[in-house]
Amino acid sequence: MTDDIAYWFSYLTNGKHLTWYASFQFTIFAALMGGALAVVFGLLGATLKNSRFLPLRLIGTFYSSIVRGVPDVLFFLFFPLAFEQGVEWLVASQICTPEAIAAQTAAWPPCKEANWFLGTTEYLLLASVSLGLVYGAFATNVIHGALRSVPNGQLEAARAFGMSPGQVLWRIQIRQMWVYALPGLSNVWMLIVKATSLLSLLQIADIVLWADRLGAPNFLPAVGLVHEDWRWRYYLVLFVFYILVTWLSERAFEAIMRRAGKGILSEARV
Amino acid sequence: MQAFLNDLALMSQAVLFNIYFAAASIPIGFVLAVFLALGKASPNPIINRLTRGYIYAFRGSPLFIQFFMFYSLALSLNIAVWKPLGISGFVLHPLFMGPLVLVLNTAAYTGEIFYGALRAVPRGEVEAARAYGMSRSQQFRRVIWPNLIRLAWPAYTNEVVFLFHATAIVYFALPVVGAQADLMITAKTLFERDYNAFLHFSVAALYFLAVSLVVFFLFGLVYQRLMRHLPAPPRMRYRPKWMR
Prior knowledge:
By secondary structure, chain A is an all-alpha fold. Chain A is built from eleven helices and no strands. Chain B has a domain of about 160 residues: MetI-like (MetI-like fold, Orthogonal Bundle).
Protein backbone atom coordinates (compact mmCIF):
# COMPACT_ATOMS: atom_id res chain seq x y z
CA MET A 1 0.00 0.00 0.00
CA THR A 2 2.63 2.54 1.04
CA ASP A 3 4.80 1.26 -1.78
CA ASP A 4 2.01 2.02 -4.21
CA ILE A 5 1.57 5.52 -2.87
CA ALA A 6 5.30 6.17 -3.02
CA TYR A 7 5.40 4.78 -6.55
CA TRP A 8 2.60 7.00 -7.84
CA PHE A 9 3.94 9.95 -5.91
CA SER A 10 7.30 9.61 -7.59
CA TYR A 11 5.61 9.24 -10.97
CA LEU A 12 3.50 12.33 -10.43
CA THR A 13 6.48 14.38 -9.28
CA ASN A 14 8.96 13.47 -12.00
CA GLY A 15 10.53 16.24 -14.05
CA LYS A 16 7.96 16.22 -16.83
CA HIS A 17 5.08 16.42 -14.39
CA LEU A 18 6.71 19.25 -12.49
CA THR A 19 7.05 21.15 -15.78
CA TRP A 20 3.37 20.50 -16.39
CA TYR A 21 2.44 21.92 -12.99
CA ALA A 22 4.70 24.91 -13.64
CA SER A 23 3.01 25.57 -16.98
CA PHE A 24 -0.21 26.45 -15.16
CA GLN A 25 1.40 29.85 -14.58
CA PHE A 26 1.05 30.66 -18.30
CA THR A 27 -2.68 29.94 -18.24
CA ILE A 28 -3.24 31.90 -15.05
CA PHE A 29 -1.14 34.83 -16.28
CA ALA A 30 -2.95 34.95 -19.63
CA ALA A 31 -6.35 34.85 -17.91
CA LEU A 32 -5.56 37.61 -15.41
CA MET A 33 -3.72 39.83 -17.90
CA GLY A 34 -6.34 39.21 -20.60
CA GLY A 35 -9.12 40.01 -18.13
CA ALA A 36 -7.48 43.26 -17.04
CA LEU A 37 -6.87 44.31 -20.64
CA ALA A 38 -10.42 43.36 -21.62
CA VAL A 39 -11.76 45.77 -18.99
CA VAL A 40 -9.40 48.49 -20.26
CA PHE A 41 -10.42 47.94 -23.89
CA GLY A 42 -14.04 47.66 -22.82
CA LEU A 43 -13.90 51.03 -21.06
CA LEU A 44 -12.20 52.52 -24.09
CA GLY A 45 -14.73 51.03 -26.49
CA ALA A 46 -17.67 52.12 -24.36
CA THR A 47 -16.30 55.66 -24.12
CA LEU A 48 -15.92 55.70 -27.91
CA LYS A 49 -19.44 54.36 -28.33
CA ASN A 50 -20.76 57.08 -26.02
CA SER A 51 -18.76 59.78 -27.76
CA ARG A 52 -20.51 62.91 -28.98
CA PHE A 53 -18.58 62.81 -32.25
CA LEU A 54 -19.97 60.47 -34.93
CA PRO A 55 -16.71 58.99 -36.37
CA LEU A 56 -15.57 57.97 -32.87
CA ARG A 57 -18.98 56.47 -32.19
CA LEU A 58 -18.70 54.52 -35.41
CA ILE A 59 -15.25 53.22 -34.45
CA GLY A 60 -16.59 52.01 -31.11
CA THR A 61 -19.60 50.31 -32.68
CA PHE A 62 -17.48 48.82 -35.47
CA TYR A 63 -14.97 47.41 -32.98
CA SER A 64 -17.54 45.79 -30.74
CA SER A 65 -19.65 44.32 -33.54
CA ILE A 66 -16.94 43.10 -35.92
CA VAL A 67 -14.77 41.44 -33.30
CA ARG A 68 -17.83 39.70 -31.84
CA GLY A 69 -18.92 38.58 -35.30
CA VAL A 70 -15.71 36.62 -35.88
CA PRO A 71 -14.62 33.50 -33.94
CA ASP A 72 -12.28 34.25 -31.06
CA VAL A 73 -9.76 31.67 -32.34
CA LEU A 74 -9.40 33.50 -35.63
CA PHE A 75 -8.60 36.80 -33.97
CA PHE A 76 -6.48 35.04 -31.35
CA LEU A 77 -4.29 33.56 -34.09
CA PHE A 78 -4.40 36.58 -36.38
CA PHE A 79 -3.41 39.33 -34.00
CA PRO A 80 0.00 37.98 -32.86
CA LEU A 81 0.93 37.00 -36.43
CA ALA A 82 -0.12 40.37 -37.81
CA PHE A 83 1.65 42.22 -35.03
CA GLU A 84 4.87 40.27 -35.59
CA GLN A 85 4.72 40.93 -39.33
CA GLY A 86 4.00 44.59 -38.78
CA VAL A 87 7.05 44.98 -36.55
CA GLU A 88 9.22 43.02 -38.99
CA TRP A 89 8.00 45.16 -41.86
CA LEU A 90 8.86 48.29 -39.91
CA VAL A 91 12.31 46.98 -39.00
CA ALA A 92 12.91 45.81 -42.57
CA SER A 93 12.13 49.25 -43.96
CA GLN A 94 14.89 50.64 -41.72
CA ILE A 95 17.74 48.13 -41.81
CA CYS A 96 17.39 46.03 -44.98
CA THR A 97 19.92 46.80 -47.71
CA PRO A 98 18.91 46.06 -51.33
CA GLU A 99 21.54 43.30 -51.43
CA ALA A 100 20.07 41.63 -48.36
CA ILE A 101 16.59 41.77 -49.88
CA ALA A 102 17.89 40.26 -53.11
CA ALA A 103 19.64 37.50 -51.17
CA GLN A 104 16.47 36.55 -49.29
CA THR A 105 14.82 33.44 -50.74
CA ALA A 106 11.93 32.92 -48.30
CA ALA A 107 8.66 34.78 -48.71
CA TRP A 108 9.00 36.54 -45.38
CA PRO A 109 10.71 38.52 -43.77
CA PRO A 110 12.07 40.84 -46.49
CA CYS A 111 15.63 40.23 -45.28
CA LYS A 112 17.16 37.91 -42.70
CA GLU A 113 18.20 40.74 -40.37
CA ALA A 114 14.59 41.82 -39.94
CA ASN A 115 13.52 38.47 -38.58
CA TRP A 116 12.01 38.80 -35.10
CA PHE A 117 12.19 35.69 -33.01
CA LEU A 118 9.31 35.38 -30.57
CA GLY A 119 9.82 33.35 -27.41
CA THR A 120 7.27 32.14 -24.90
CA THR A 121 7.24 35.46 -23.02
CA GLU A 122 6.53 37.49 -26.15
CA TYR A 123 3.85 35.09 -27.33
CA LEU A 124 2.28 35.08 -23.88
CA LEU A 125 2.09 38.88 -23.86
CA LEU A 126 0.71 38.94 -27.40
CA ALA A 127 -1.82 36.26 -26.49
CA SER A 128 -2.94 38.30 -23.47
CA VAL A 129 -3.32 41.39 -25.63
CA SER A 130 -5.36 39.55 -28.22
CA LEU A 131 -7.53 38.00 -25.49
CA GLY A 132 -7.99 41.53 -24.19
CA LEU A 133 -8.91 42.82 -27.64
CA VAL A 134 -11.39 40.04 -28.39
CA TYR A 135 -13.14 40.04 -25.03
CA GLY A 136 -12.79 43.81 -24.78
CA ALA A 137 -15.38 43.90 -27.54
CA PHE A 138 -17.76 41.88 -25.35
CA ALA A 139 -16.88 44.08 -22.36
CA THR A 140 -17.58 47.17 -24.49
CA ASN A 141 -21.18 46.06 -24.88
CA VAL A 142 -21.52 45.22 -21.20
CA ILE A 143 -20.02 48.51 -20.02
CA HIS A 144 -21.96 50.51 -22.59
CA GLY A 145 -25.18 49.05 -21.24
CA ALA A 146 -24.08 49.59 -17.64
CA LEU A 147 -23.22 53.24 -18.28
CA ARG A 148 -26.76 53.78 -19.46
CA SER A 149 -28.30 52.18 -16.38
CA VAL A 150 -26.73 54.70 -13.99
CA PRO A 151 -29.71 56.72 -12.70
CA ASN A 152 -30.06 59.96 -14.59
CA GLY A 153 -30.67 61.92 -11.41
CA GLN A 154 -27.13 61.21 -10.27
CA LEU A 155 -25.70 62.68 -13.47
CA GLU A 156 -28.03 65.68 -13.31
CA ALA A 157 -26.99 66.32 -9.73
CA ALA A 158 -23.33 66.19 -10.74
CA ARG A 159 -23.96 68.63 -13.57
CA ALA A 160 -25.82 70.91 -11.20
CA PHE A 161 -22.73 70.94 -9.00
CA GLY A 162 -20.86 72.40 -11.97
CA MET A 163 -18.87 69.32 -12.99
CA SER A 164 -17.53 69.25 -16.53
CA PRO A 165 -18.70 66.39 -18.84
CA GLY A 166 -15.40 64.57 -18.27
CA GLN A 167 -15.76 64.86 -14.52
CA VAL A 168 -19.34 63.60 -14.68
CA LEU A 169 -18.18 60.62 -16.73
CA TRP A 170 -15.17 59.66 -14.64
CA ARG A 171 -16.27 60.64 -11.14
CA ILE A 172 -19.95 59.69 -11.25
CA GLN A 173 -20.91 57.56 -14.21
CA ILE A 174 -17.97 55.13 -14.29
CA ARG A 175 -17.79 54.93 -10.48
CA GLN A 176 -21.43 53.91 -10.29
CA MET A 177 -21.67 51.71 -13.34
CA TRP A 178 -19.68 48.77 -11.88
CA VAL A 179 -22.68 47.43 -9.97
CA TYR A 180 -24.63 47.13 -13.19
CA ALA A 181 -21.66 45.87 -15.21
CA LEU A 182 -20.55 43.12 -12.81
CA PRO A 183 -22.97 40.35 -13.91
CA GLY A 184 -22.00 40.89 -17.55
CA LEU A 185 -18.31 41.18 -16.74
CA SER A 186 -18.45 37.90 -14.84
CA ASN A 187 -19.73 36.25 -18.03
CA VAL A 188 -16.87 37.82 -20.01
CA TRP A 189 -14.42 36.54 -17.42
CA MET A 190 -15.78 32.99 -17.81
CA LEU A 191 -15.28 33.28 -21.58
CA ILE A 192 -11.69 34.47 -21.06
CA VAL A 193 -10.92 31.59 -18.71
CA LYS A 194 -12.18 29.13 -21.30
CA ALA A 195 -10.25 30.85 -24.08
CA THR A 196 -6.96 30.39 -22.20
CA SER A 197 -7.08 26.74 -23.27
CA LEU A 198 -6.08 27.94 -26.75
CA LEU A 199 -2.61 29.13 -25.71
CA SER A 200 -0.94 26.07 -27.20
CA LEU A 201 -1.98 27.28 -30.67
CA LEU A 202 0.59 30.08 -30.24
CA GLN A 203 3.50 27.73 -29.50
CA ILE A 204 3.27 28.23 -25.76
CA ALA A 205 4.03 25.02 -23.87
CA ASP A 206 0.90 25.36 -21.77
CA ILE A 207 -1.12 22.85 -19.75
CA VAL A 208 -2.86 21.41 -22.81
CA LEU A 209 0.38 20.72 -24.67
CA TRP A 210 1.94 19.09 -21.61
CA ALA A 211 -1.13 16.97 -20.97
CA ASP A 212 -0.84 15.71 -24.54
CA ARG A 213 2.87 14.93 -24.14
CA LEU A 214 2.53 13.26 -20.74
CA GLY A 215 -0.41 11.12 -21.78
CA ALA A 216 1.06 9.95 -25.08
CA PRO A 217 1.73 6.18 -25.01
CA ASN A 218 5.23 5.22 -23.94
CA PHE A 219 6.87 1.89 -24.82
CA LEU A 220 10.47 2.63 -23.81
CA PRO A 221 11.34 1.81 -20.18
CA ALA A 222 14.37 4.12 -20.48
CA VAL A 223 12.10 7.13 -21.02
CA GLY A 224 9.93 6.50 -18.00
CA LEU A 225 6.87 4.55 -16.94
CA VAL A 226 5.67 2.26 -19.72
CA HIS A 227 2.00 2.94 -20.28
CA GLU A 228 -0.57 2.96 -23.04
CA ASP A 229 -2.48 5.99 -24.27
CA TRP A 230 -3.36 7.89 -21.10
CA ARG A 231 -4.18 11.20 -22.73
CA TRP A 232 -7.85 11.15 -21.83
CA ARG A 233 -6.94 10.91 -18.14
CA TYR A 234 -4.79 14.00 -18.37
CA TYR A 235 -7.46 15.85 -20.31
CA LEU A 236 -9.99 14.77 -17.70
CA VAL A 237 -7.79 16.46 -15.10
CA LEU A 238 -7.83 19.66 -17.16
CA PHE A 239 -11.60 19.32 -17.63
CA VAL A 240 -12.02 19.17 -13.85
CA PHE A 241 -9.50 21.98 -13.37
CA TYR A 242 -11.49 24.31 -15.60
CA ILE A 243 -14.76 23.41 -13.89
CA LEU A 244 -13.15 24.19 -10.53
CA VAL A 245 -11.88 27.54 -11.83
CA THR A 246 -15.39 28.36 -13.06
CA TRP A 247 -16.86 27.41 -9.71
CA LEU A 248 -14.31 29.52 -7.83
CA SER A 249 -14.88 32.49 -10.13
CA GLU A 250 -18.63 32.23 -9.62
CA ARG A 251 -18.20 32.28 -5.86
CA ALA A 252 -15.75 35.19 -6.07
CA PHE A 253 -18.04 37.24 -8.32
CA GLU A 254 -20.98 36.55 -6.03
CA ALA A 255 -18.98 37.90 -3.10
CA ILE A 256 -17.86 40.96 -5.08
CA MET A 257 -21.39 41.68 -6.27
CA ARG A 258 -22.73 41.43 -2.74
CA ARG A 259 -20.08 43.85 -1.57
CA ALA A 260 -20.42 46.28 -4.50
CA GLY A 261 -24.20 46.30 -4.21
CA LYS A 262 -24.10 47.46 -0.59
CA GLY A 263 -25.94 50.71 -0.07
CA ILE A 264 -27.34 50.76 -3.57
CA LEU A 265 -31.10 50.59 -3.80
CA SER A 266 -31.81 48.85 -7.06
CA GLU A 267 -32.84 45.67 -8.72
CA ALA A 268 -29.27 45.29 -10.01
CA ARG A 269 -28.66 43.14 -6.92
CA VAL A 270 -30.36 39.99 -7.98
CA MET B 1 -7.29 41.61 -56.11
CA GLN B 2 -6.64 38.37 -57.96
CA ALA B 3 -5.26 36.87 -54.77
CA PHE B 4 -8.39 37.94 -52.93
CA LEU B 5 -10.66 36.26 -55.49
CA ASN B 6 -8.49 33.15 -55.38
CA ASP B 7 -8.90 33.00 -51.64
CA LEU B 8 -12.64 33.51 -51.92
CA ALA B 9 -12.85 30.57 -54.33
CA LEU B 10 -10.61 28.31 -52.22
CA MET B 11 -12.50 29.01 -49.04
CA SER B 12 -15.92 28.52 -50.56
CA GLN B 13 -15.14 24.81 -50.29
CA ALA B 14 -13.77 25.14 -46.78
CA VAL B 15 -16.79 26.96 -45.39
CA LEU B 16 -18.92 23.94 -46.26
CA PHE B 17 -17.14 21.97 -43.52
CA ASN B 18 -17.94 24.62 -40.94
CA ILE B 19 -21.54 24.69 -42.11
CA TYR B 20 -21.67 20.90 -41.98
CA PHE B 21 -20.40 20.80 -38.40
CA ALA B 22 -22.93 23.41 -37.31
CA ALA B 23 -25.85 21.96 -39.29
CA ALA B 24 -25.18 18.42 -38.06
CA SER B 25 -25.03 19.39 -34.39
CA ILE B 26 -27.74 22.05 -34.08
CA PRO B 27 -30.88 19.87 -34.58
CA ILE B 28 -29.68 17.05 -32.31
CA GLY B 29 -28.44 19.55 -29.74
CA PHE B 30 -31.82 21.26 -29.84
CA VAL B 31 -33.76 18.10 -29.05
CA LEU B 32 -31.29 17.07 -26.35
CA ALA B 33 -31.47 20.55 -24.83
CA VAL B 34 -35.24 20.33 -24.40
CA PHE B 35 -34.81 17.15 -22.37
CA LEU B 36 -31.96 18.70 -20.38
CA ALA B 37 -34.07 21.76 -19.57
CA LEU B 38 -36.97 19.56 -18.47
CA GLY B 39 -34.54 17.46 -16.44
CA LYS B 40 -33.10 20.50 -14.70
CA ALA B 41 -36.61 21.62 -13.80
CA SER B 42 -37.71 18.12 -12.76
CA PRO B 43 -38.53 17.48 -9.08
CA ASN B 44 -36.93 14.01 -9.25
CA PRO B 45 -33.65 14.50 -7.31
CA ILE B 46 -31.62 12.01 -9.37
CA ILE B 47 -32.59 13.40 -12.78
CA ASN B 48 -32.30 16.93 -11.45
CA ARG B 49 -28.78 16.45 -10.04
CA LEU B 50 -27.55 14.60 -13.13
CA THR B 51 -28.75 17.20 -15.63
CA ARG B 52 -27.59 20.06 -13.42
CA GLY B 53 -24.13 18.51 -13.18
CA TYR B 54 -24.00 17.83 -16.90
CA ILE B 55 -24.96 21.39 -17.84
CA TYR B 56 -22.55 22.85 -15.30
CA ALA B 57 -19.62 20.69 -16.44
CA PHE B 58 -20.05 21.37 -20.13
CA ARG B 59 -20.67 25.08 -19.69
CA GLY B 60 -17.82 25.43 -17.24
CA SER B 61 -15.05 23.89 -19.31
CA PRO B 62 -13.53 24.89 -22.65
CA LEU B 63 -14.79 23.22 -25.80
CA PHE B 64 -11.17 22.77 -26.86
CA ILE B 65 -10.52 20.50 -23.85
CA GLN B 66 -13.78 18.63 -24.47
CA PHE B 67 -12.65 17.88 -28.03
CA PHE B 68 -9.30 16.55 -26.86
CA MET B 69 -10.87 14.55 -24.06
CA PHE B 70 -13.50 12.79 -26.13
CA TYR B 71 -11.19 12.21 -29.05
CA SER B 72 -8.46 10.69 -26.92
CA LEU B 73 -11.07 8.62 -25.08
CA ALA B 74 -12.32 7.28 -28.40
CA LEU B 75 -8.73 6.58 -29.45
CA SER B 76 -7.96 4.61 -26.30
CA LEU B 77 -11.12 2.52 -26.79
CA ASN B 78 -10.17 1.85 -30.39
CA ILE B 79 -8.49 -1.54 -30.01
CA ALA B 80 -10.91 -2.84 -27.39
CA VAL B 81 -14.20 -1.67 -28.90
CA TRP B 82 -14.26 0.03 -32.29
CA LYS B 83 -11.81 -2.29 -34.06
CA PRO B 84 -13.69 -5.52 -33.27
CA LEU B 85 -16.93 -3.87 -34.33
CA GLY B 86 -15.25 -2.72 -37.53
CA ILE B 87 -16.40 0.88 -37.14
CA SER B 88 -13.13 2.50 -36.05
CA GLY B 89 -12.77 4.44 -39.29
CA PHE B 90 -16.23 5.87 -38.76
CA VAL B 91 -16.06 6.65 -35.05
CA LEU B 92 -12.61 8.25 -35.18
CA HIS B 93 -13.41 10.32 -38.25
CA PRO B 94 -13.54 14.08 -37.52
CA LEU B 95 -16.77 14.34 -39.47
CA PHE B 96 -18.35 12.10 -36.80
CA MET B 97 -16.31 13.11 -33.77
CA GLY B 98 -16.68 16.85 -34.40
CA PRO B 99 -20.48 16.96 -34.43
CA LEU B 100 -20.60 14.52 -31.48
CA VAL B 101 -18.64 16.82 -29.17
CA LEU B 102 -20.39 19.90 -30.54
CA VAL B 103 -23.76 18.29 -29.78
CA LEU B 104 -22.72 17.52 -26.21
CA ASN B 105 -21.49 21.08 -25.79
CA THR B 106 -24.33 22.98 -27.43
CA ALA B 107 -26.94 20.82 -25.68
CA ALA B 108 -25.62 22.08 -22.34
CA TYR B 109 -25.62 25.76 -23.37
CA THR B 110 -29.03 25.52 -25.09
CA GLY B 111 -30.39 23.50 -22.18
CA GLU B 112 -29.49 26.34 -19.83
CA ILE B 113 -31.21 28.85 -22.15
CA PHE B 114 -34.34 26.70 -22.33
CA TYR B 115 -34.32 26.18 -18.57
CA GLY B 116 -34.23 29.94 -18.05
CA ALA B 117 -37.14 30.34 -20.48
CA LEU B 118 -39.03 27.49 -18.82
CA ARG B 119 -38.88 29.28 -15.48
CA ALA B 120 -40.10 32.48 -17.15
CA VAL B 121 -43.23 30.85 -18.58
CA PRO B 122 -46.17 32.75 -17.01
CA ARG B 123 -47.48 30.84 -13.99
CA GLY B 124 -51.06 31.86 -14.60
CA GLU B 125 -51.18 30.31 -18.05
CA VAL B 126 -49.99 26.96 -16.73
CA GLU B 127 -52.52 27.11 -13.92
CA ALA B 128 -55.28 27.99 -16.39
CA ALA B 129 -54.28 25.02 -18.53
CA ARG B 130 -54.43 22.78 -15.48
CA ALA B 131 -57.80 24.22 -14.55
CA TYR B 132 -59.09 23.26 -17.99
CA GLY B 133 -58.12 19.70 -17.17
CA MET B 134 -55.27 19.37 -19.66
CA SER B 135 -52.98 16.41 -19.16
CA ARG B 136 -49.25 16.97 -18.49
CA SER B 137 -48.35 16.39 -22.13
CA GLN B 138 -51.16 18.66 -23.34
CA GLN B 139 -49.97 21.36 -20.96
CA PHE B 140 -46.50 21.07 -22.35
CA ARG B 141 -47.47 21.01 -26.00
CA ARG B 142 -50.12 23.73 -25.94
CA VAL B 143 -48.99 26.12 -23.22
CA ILE B 144 -45.45 25.65 -21.95
CA TRP B 145 -43.63 24.91 -25.19
CA PRO B 146 -45.04 27.82 -27.27
CA ASN B 147 -44.18 30.23 -24.47
CA LEU B 148 -40.77 28.68 -23.91
CA ILE B 149 -39.61 28.82 -27.50
CA ARG B 150 -40.73 32.43 -27.91
CA LEU B 151 -38.90 33.48 -24.78
CA ALA B 152 -35.77 31.53 -25.65
CA TRP B 153 -35.51 32.29 -29.35
CA PRO B 154 -33.33 35.47 -29.25
CA ALA B 155 -30.82 33.83 -26.88
CA TYR B 156 -30.95 30.63 -28.91
CA THR B 157 -30.06 32.60 -32.05
CA ASN B 158 -26.95 33.87 -30.29
CA GLU B 159 -26.05 30.36 -29.21
CA VAL B 160 -26.34 29.07 -32.78
CA VAL B 161 -23.99 31.79 -34.01
CA PHE B 162 -21.60 30.97 -31.18
CA LEU B 163 -21.73 27.31 -32.13
CA PHE B 164 -20.91 28.21 -35.71
CA HIS B 165 -17.94 30.20 -34.45
CA ALA B 166 -16.91 27.27 -32.29
CA THR B 167 -16.62 25.06 -35.38
CA ALA B 168 -13.41 27.02 -36.07
CA ILE B 169 -11.51 24.95 -33.49
CA VAL B 170 -12.70 21.51 -34.57
CA TYR B 171 -9.69 20.82 -36.75
CA PHE B 172 -7.23 22.26 -34.25
CA ALA B 173 -8.13 19.38 -31.95
CA LEU B 174 -8.97 16.64 -34.47
CA PRO B 175 -6.78 15.36 -37.31
CA VAL B 176 -7.32 16.75 -40.79
CA VAL B 177 -8.23 13.90 -43.17
CA GLY B 178 -6.96 14.45 -46.70
CA ALA B 179 -8.21 17.66 -48.28
CA GLN B 180 -11.07 18.04 -45.79
CA ALA B 181 -10.06 21.35 -44.26
CA ASP B 182 -12.30 23.98 -42.75
CA LEU B 183 -11.85 27.76 -42.94
CA MET B 184 -9.24 28.07 -40.20
CA ILE B 185 -7.03 25.26 -41.50
CA THR B 186 -7.27 26.61 -45.05
CA ALA B 187 -6.36 30.09 -43.88
CA LYS B 188 -3.46 28.69 -41.86
CA THR B 189 -2.03 26.59 -44.71
CA LEU B 190 -2.36 29.49 -47.13
CA PHE B 191 -0.62 31.71 -44.58
CA GLU B 192 2.23 29.26 -44.17
CA ARG B 193 2.72 29.32 -47.94
CA ASP B 194 3.13 33.05 -48.53
CA TYR B 195 2.97 34.67 -45.06
CA ASN B 196 0.17 37.03 -46.02
CA ALA B 197 -1.74 37.04 -42.73
CA PHE B 198 -3.91 40.03 -43.54
CA LEU B 199 -5.38 38.58 -46.72
CA HIS B 200 -6.07 34.97 -45.74
CA PHE B 201 -7.40 35.57 -42.24
CA SER B 202 -9.54 38.46 -43.44
CA VAL B 203 -11.16 36.30 -46.09
CA ALA B 204 -11.86 33.59 -43.50
CA ALA B 205 -13.29 36.26 -41.19
CA LEU B 206 -15.49 37.52 -44.04
CA TYR B 207 -16.92 34.05 -44.51
CA PHE B 208 -17.62 33.71 -40.80
CA LEU B 209 -19.28 37.12 -40.75
CA ALA B 210 -21.34 36.35 -43.82
CA VAL B 211 -22.66 33.05 -42.47
CA SER B 212 -23.35 34.65 -39.08
CA LEU B 213 -25.41 37.36 -40.77
CA VAL B 214 -27.35 34.75 -42.76
CA VAL B 215 -28.06 32.85 -39.52
CA PHE B 216 -29.23 36.05 -37.84
CA PHE B 217 -31.46 36.81 -40.82
CA LEU B 218 -33.03 33.33 -41.01
CA PHE B 219 -33.56 33.08 -37.27
CA GLY B 220 -35.00 36.59 -37.34
CA LEU B 221 -37.57 35.43 -39.89
CA VAL B 222 -38.50 32.51 -37.66
CA TYR B 223 -38.79 34.89 -34.72
CA GLN B 224 -41.12 37.15 -36.70
CA ARG B 225 -43.25 34.13 -37.50
CA LEU B 226 -43.28 33.05 -33.85
CA MET B 227 -44.33 36.54 -32.79
CA ARG B 228 -46.93 37.04 -35.52
CA HIS B 229 -49.77 37.34 -33.00
CA LEU B 230 -48.25 40.48 -31.54
CA PRO B 231 -48.48 43.97 -33.09
CA ALA B 232 -45.45 44.61 -35.30
CA PRO B 233 -42.64 46.49 -33.56
CA PRO B 234 -41.92 50.00 -34.86
CA ARG B 235 -39.74 49.95 -37.95
CA MET B 236 -36.16 51.10 -37.81
CA ARG B 237 -35.82 54.73 -38.76
CA TYR B 238 -32.79 56.15 -40.46
CA ARG B 239 -32.05 59.32 -38.55
CA PRO B 240 -28.31 59.92 -38.28
CA LYS B 241 -27.06 62.16 -35.49
CA TRP B 242 -23.81 63.64 -36.67
CA MET B 243 -23.11 65.55 -33.50
CA ARG B 244 -24.81 65.15 -30.15
